C-alpha cells in the first residue's frame, strides 16, 4: 500500500494548488482526479473555456460594430463556430497540460480515478487502497438543477453544455441572472442569438452593489439581452424545434411561456460529494449539503476540506487561497485566508468587479460611511479606447477613512480591483490611495479619482 503525508481528492484550483504547496513544504503528496485531465471544472468546463469564448465573441463584436469608428474599414468578419470551439479547446489543453507539468516539476503523484474514503487515513481508487496522514477533500461543485427542468446538455443545458454547442442558436433562454448566466448569455448575444434572461429575484447579480446591478442591467439591455425579473420557472421541455420554458410572474402569479433553440440553466452550483463515502467515516455536512469545517478541518481528525465543497463563495481563487492555507497548516505553519477581501468578477463587457462591503450591507449594519465615485467617461484612457461606460465606487469609513469596499463597472475592472484588495489588506485609507501616484493615461487613474472623491473631490469630475 502506497503511503503519503497528504492525499488530495480533486485536482481543481483548490486541489492542485494545495498539492503543489504541500510538495514545496516537503510533504509527500498525491492528488487523485477522476477526469482524464487536471484542472477541475475551472480549467476544463468552466472559468477558462468561458473566458476564451468571451474573448472570441468580444473580438467579433468589436470588428463588426466598432472598428469603422476608429478608421478600420472592411467587411465584417464571418463566424466559423467550429474554429472558435477549436480555439477554446486549445486554450483548455494548454492550461491543463501546464498543471500536469507543474505536478511533475514538484514531484506530485497523480492518481487517476474516482476516490472514496474507506477509513481513517485510507483512500481507495478502483481496487487500490492508499494511506495518508492527512486527506484533503477538494472535489469542487456541479451545476444545480431545477425540478421540472430536465437537463440533456444538448437543448436544455448547463454551463458545460453551453460551452460545447455545435452551432450558434438563434434564440436562447437563460434561467438565472448570476455570473454564469450573464457571461454565457453575453457570449451568444454577441454572436447573434436572441437572449432572454429569467431571474427569480427582482434584480440581477444577487448580492452585488445595487447601483452596479441596475447600471449593469441597463447596459446589457442596450447590448440586446432581454430580462424578465421576478420569474419563477415552473418547467422546461424539449419541443420539435428546441425547448419551451414555462414560468410564473411573482407580482401577479400569472403564467407565461418562452420558446427558444437552447435553454441554459444557470441557477448556481452545489458541492460534488458523490461516491466519497463521507457518511461512512462520519464527516458532518451543513444543512445546505456542504462539508462543515472549522479552519478547514472536518469533524473527522485528519480529514480536511476546501473550495466549493465547503461554505463560502464558490470561487476558484477562494479555493486556491484555502489550498495554500491548509497545506501550510498541515506542515505546521499558520495558514490564513482573509475572507473579507475576496474579490468577485463578472467577465462581460464592461467587466464588473467588487470587493468588501456594499452600500446595502453598510446601511443594514448602521455603519457610517462615505462614497467616492468616478465615471470612466472622464478617464482619458477609457475615452481613447471606446470604453468609457461605467464607474468606480469606493466606500470608506466616515470617521477613519479606512477603505471598506469597492465596486467597479468598466474596462479591465477585474484587474483594477486588486489595487483595492492590496490596500484593504494593509488597512489603507481612501486618502492613502488618493496620494499614491498613478501612471497617466491609465484606467487605474479612475481608482485614484474615486479615492479623491472620498475627500475634497476628484480632479477630473
Key words describing this protein structure:
22 strands; FAD/NAD(P)-binding domain; 14 helices; 461 residues; 3 domains; single chain
What would your notes on this structure say?
With 461 residues, the protein is α/β, with parallel strands linked by helices. It folds into 3 domains: 3-143 and 270-330, FAD/NAD(P)-binding domain, CATH 3.50.50; 156-267, FAD/NAD(P)-binding domain, CATH 3.50.50; 344-453, Enolase-like, domain 1. 32% of the residues lie in helices and 25% in strands. The protein is built from 14 helices and 22 strands. The strands form 5 sheets. Strands 1, 2, 3, 4, 5, 6 and 17 form a 7-stranded mixed beta sheet that branches. It has a 5-stranded parallel beta sheet with strand order 8-15-9-10-11. Helix 1 (13-24) runs parallel beside helix 9 (316-330), helix 3 runs antiparallel to helix 4 and helix 3 (47-66) packs parallel to helix 6 (179-190). The longest helix has 25 residues, at 81-105. The chain is globular and about 65 Å long. It starts with a strand and ends in an 8-residue tail after the last helix.
Structure in a nutshell:
The chain is an alpha/beta fold.
Q: What is the CA-based Rg, rounded?
A: 23 Å
- Low-pLDDT parts are none
CATH topology of the largest domain: FAD/NAD(P)-binding domain
Taking the alpha carbons of the first and last residues, their distance comes to 68 Å
Task: Determine the fraction of residues in helical runs and give it as a percent range.
Answer: 25-40%
Please give the domain count.
3
Largest sheet: 7 strands, mixed
Structural class: alpha/beta
Tell me which oligomeric state these chains represent.
Answer: single chain
Strand segment count: 22
The fraction of residues assigned to DSSP E strands is 25-35%
CATH superfamily of the largest domain: FAD/NAD(P)-binding domain
Average predicted confidence as pLDDT: 97
At CATH level 2, the architecture of the largest domain is: 3-Layer(bba) Sandwich
CATH class of the largest domain: Alpha Beta
Amino acid at each position: 500500500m502506497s503511503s503519503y503525508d497528504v492525499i488530495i481528492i480533486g485536482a481543481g484550483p483548490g486541489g492542485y494548488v494545495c498539492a503543489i504547496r504541500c510538495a514545496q513544504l516537503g510533504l509527500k503528496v498525491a492528488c487523485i482526479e477522476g477526469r482524464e485531465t487536471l484542472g477541475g471544472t475551472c480549467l476544463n468546463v468552466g472559468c477558462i473555456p468561458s473566458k476564451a469564448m468571451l474573448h472570441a465573441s468580444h473580438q467579433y463584436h468589436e470588428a463588426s460594430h466598432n472598428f469603422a469608428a476608429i478608421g478600420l474599414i472592411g467587411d465584417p468578419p464571418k463566424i466559423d463556430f467550429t474554429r472558435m470551439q477549436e480555439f477554446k479547446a486549445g486554450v483548455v489543453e494548454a492550461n491543463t497540460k501546464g498543471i500536469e507539468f507543474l505536478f511533475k516539476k514538484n514531484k506530485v503523484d497523480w492518481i487517476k480515478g474516482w476516490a472514496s474514503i474507506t477509513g481513517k487515513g485510507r483512500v481507495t481508487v478502483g481496487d487500490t487502497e492508499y494511506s495518508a496522514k492527512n486527506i484533503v477533500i477538494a472535489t469542487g461543485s456541479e451545476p444545480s438543477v431545477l425540478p421540472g427542468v430536465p437537463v440533456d446538455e444538448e437543448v436544455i443545458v448547463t454551463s458545460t453544455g453551453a460551452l460545447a454547442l455545435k452551432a450558434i442558436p438563434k434564440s436562447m433562454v437563460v434561467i438565472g441572472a448570476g455570473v454564469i448566466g450573464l457571461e454565457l448569455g453575453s457570449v451568444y448575444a454577441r454572436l447573434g442569438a436572441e437572449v432572454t434572461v429569467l431571474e427569480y429575484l427582482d434584480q440581477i447579480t444577487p448580492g452585488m452593489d445595487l447601483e452596479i446591478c441596475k447600471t449593469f442591467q441597463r447596459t446589457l439591455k442596450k447590448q440586446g439581452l432581454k430580462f424578465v425579473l421576478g420569474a419563477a420557472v415552473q418547467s422546461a421541455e424539449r419541443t420539435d424545434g428546441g425547448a419551451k420554458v414555462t414560468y410564473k410572474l411573482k407580482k401577479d402569479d400569472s403564467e407565461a411561456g418562452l420558446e427558444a433553440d437552447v435553454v441554459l440553466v444557470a441557477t448556481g452550483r452545489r458541492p460534488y460529494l458523490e461516491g466519497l463515502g463521507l457518511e461512512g467515516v462520519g464527516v458532518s455536512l451543513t444543512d445546505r449539503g456542504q462539508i462543515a469545517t472549522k479552519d478547514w478541518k472536518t469533524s473527522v481528525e485528519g480529514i480536511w476540506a476546501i473550495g466549493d465543497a465547503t461554505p463560502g463563495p464558490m470561487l476558484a481563487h477562494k479555493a486556491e487561497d484555502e489550498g495554500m492555507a491548509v497545506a501550510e497548516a498541515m506542515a505546521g505553519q499558520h495558514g490564513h485566508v482573509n475572507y473579507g477581501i475576496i474579490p468577485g468578477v463578472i467577465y462581460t463587457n464592461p467587466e464588473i468587479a467588487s470587493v468588501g462591503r456594499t452600500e446595502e450591507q453598510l446601511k443594514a449594519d448602521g455603519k457610517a460611511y462615505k462614497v467616492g465615485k468616478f465615471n470612466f467617461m472622464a478617464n482619458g484612457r477609457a475615452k481613447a479606447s471606446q470604453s468609457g461606460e461605467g464607474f468606480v465606487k469606493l466606500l470608506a469609513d466616515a470617521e477613519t477613512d479606512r477603505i471598506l469596499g469597492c465596486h467597479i463597472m468598466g474596462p479591465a475592472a477585474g484587474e483594477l480591483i486588486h489595487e483595492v484588495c492590496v490596500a484593504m489588506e494593509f488597512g489603507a485609507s481612501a486618502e492613502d490611495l488618493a496620494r499614491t501616484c498613478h501612471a497617466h493615461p491609465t484606467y487605474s487613474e479612475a481608482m485614484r479619482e474615486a479615492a479623491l472623491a472620498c475627500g475634497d473631490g476628484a480632479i477630473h469630475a
